[in-house]
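RECORD TYPE: inverse folding
INPUT: structure tokens
STRUCTURE:
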């Protein structure tokens, strides 16, 4: 029975017809997402983007690897360029910014004024392989989650986070080391998908 409260997902074939730069296999993007700048977005395989997420890539690029899950109500602002490597994800409500206004009072905010009056900070964000970002966390321009880094819920990343460590707080601080076992499971995960696809 059709449930009108569940709009469902676009699949890989439909998404390719929308003009994305690249879409892999087994990609699902919820029908109630907002995606701007599809021509600047490359998506690997086995990626799911849940409802009410907004991706703005009209002024920059987004490259997503394989095996990624973006939870509901996330925001990816890609003006400065964003890379999300494989086998990781974002929980609900995560906000990732690659551009931020200058709040010093020495320039205007980005409120439809001439660009020469604005002094936005624009810097790429890289989210490494096996990284996870907890619910309602914020990642600011220039932050780099190195391989295996975790950012706990309700936290803010303003600088690079150490590989294979769990971080939390505002600003986020290193809490403890994380097991690297998950990295040894990559081949098994890829093999299971290939077996299912054949």
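DESIGNED SEQUENCE:
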């Amino acid at each position: 029975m059709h449930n009108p409260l569940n709009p469902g997902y676009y699949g890989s074939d439909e998404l390719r017809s929308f003009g994305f730069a690249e879409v892999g296999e087994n990609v699902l993007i919820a029908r109630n997402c907002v995606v701007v700048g599809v021509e600047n977005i490359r998506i690997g395989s086995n990626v799911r983007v849940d409802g009410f997420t907004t991706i703005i890539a009209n002024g920059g690029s987004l490259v997503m690897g394989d095996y990624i899950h973006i939870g509901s109500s996330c925001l990816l602002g890609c003006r400065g360029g964003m890379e999300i490597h494989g086998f990781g994800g974002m929980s609900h409500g995560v906000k990732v910014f690659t551009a931020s206004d200058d709040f010093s009072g020495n320039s205007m905010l980005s409120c439809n004024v001439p660009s020469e009056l604005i002094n936005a900070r624009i810097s790429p964000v890289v989210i490494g392989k096996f990284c996870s970002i907890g619910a309602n966390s914020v990642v600011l321009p220039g932050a780099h989650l190195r391989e295996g880094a975790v950012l706990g819920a309700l936290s803010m990343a303003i600088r690079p986070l150490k590989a294979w460590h769990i971080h939390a707080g505002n600003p986020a601080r290193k809490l403890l080391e994380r097991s690297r076992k998950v990295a040894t499971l990559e081949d098994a995960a890829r093999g299971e998908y290939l077996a299912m696809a054949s």
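NOTES: The chain has a mean pLDDT of 94.
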